Amino acid sequence: MTSAALSPEKPHIFSLRMSDLAEEFMSIGVPEKKARYHSRQVFHWLYHRKITSFEQMTDLSKLTRQHLTDKYEIAALPKVFEQKSVDGTQKFLFKLFDGKTIESVLIPSEDRLTICISSQVGCAMACKFCLTGTMGLMRNLGVHEIVGQVLELSKNANISNIVFMGMGEPLHNLENVCRAIEILLNQDGLNFSKRKVTVSTSGLVPAIRKMNERLKGAYRPNLAISLNGSYDAQREEVMPVNKAFDIKTLLDACRDWELEPHRRITFEYVVLGGLNDTLEDAERVRRLLADIPSKVNLIPYNPHPGSEYARPDDAKVNAMHRYLLDRDVAAMVRHSRGRDILAACGQLRSAKKEALESASAETAPAAVATA
Ligand code: SF4
User: Fold this and answer.
1) Which domains does the chain have, with CATH numbers?
2) Of 104, 105, 123, 177, best ligand 1 pocket probe by most atoms within 8 Å of the beta carbon
3) Gap between the Cα atoms of 217 and 163, Å rounded
4) N or C: which terminus of the chain has fewer CB atoms within 10 Å of its end residue's CB?
5) How far is the CA of 125 from the centre of ligand 1 (A)?
6) pLDDT over 70 (residue 8)
7) Residue 45 CA to its chain's centroid (Å)
8) How far apart are CA 360 and CA 155, in angstroms?
9) What band does 7 get if pLDDT is binned at 50, 70 and 90?
10) 314-318 contacts: CB < 8 A, separation 24 or more?
11) pTM value?
12) In Å, how far from its chain's centre is CA 39?
């Protein structure tokens, strides 16, 4: 594992979309057609060959390489800790230039390898069941810090799916998330299929509407909504965002989300023991989503230390699942992965925070990895 945190002094090359790179080349006098060609060459080096120095871009002129070296940072996002669960889930901690840390998780299943990435350090949304929500928002991630998580972990793993479900509310960092998606899905970039990329939101309605306009065609990701309640008072108890945008307002935005044929919006429903785990809740969810092409993921809550909510009874989760299936709602039960490695959002970061933030850049990896 590497240790040096990225320099904040120069903009990072991973923040540039292909169109930004073409503009950069044109700004130093390269004719448009050649600038576009150069930008494709650079993307190829960065995202296919995954090189870490401009000097290695041997089909660019020496002058062009020098220009990029002078102006941009190219270093990889430093991984400072990793942990593997008995179920194969792997969790990684990355260190940012300001010493802050973020988490990414690789989740293998039969037919896919999903990366769950962070979009912010901490989160402002304060969902009561989420450890990251207790941290508050420290800052948004830059485009390069979002892209960097995927790029770094794709060096040793054949990642098929990306979910924006790690630390942070992606739509609270909308512009950077959209730009990162434009890089991750670019066919000369990391070339992910739009069907394999999902942005999950707690329900920031204006940003859902903006993303609906902002990402079209080849760059349009799947939308997932963190629902977690079957009526306003209940949802408000666990998700303060519901006070600003209630369930009706949220579902209206979902109805206006332009869905391509055969695609659906995913509704995540964390089942909290004794709070939202009854058949009445299942019926209310069914009614709420009746006219929205949707699927429901029931996620039995995995309590973190200090949590005020309990794990639900399996029998109750199974009864909700059966109730929805019997009424033709596409529903699945999704169990938390990596329970033995603090895989719930924010847990690893919390456990390692003090060691990482007090260690120097040079000593952090050894100190933490062996902790
Ligand atoms: S669940 Fe997501 S949106 Fe809610 S506090 Fe946690 S990270 Fe933020």
Assistant:
1) 17-71 (1.10.150.530), 79-355 (3.20.20.70)
2) 123
3) 19
4) C
5) 6
6) no
7) 24
8) 26
9) low
10) 316/271, 316/273, 316/277, 316/278, 317/271, 317/277
11) 0.91
12) 26
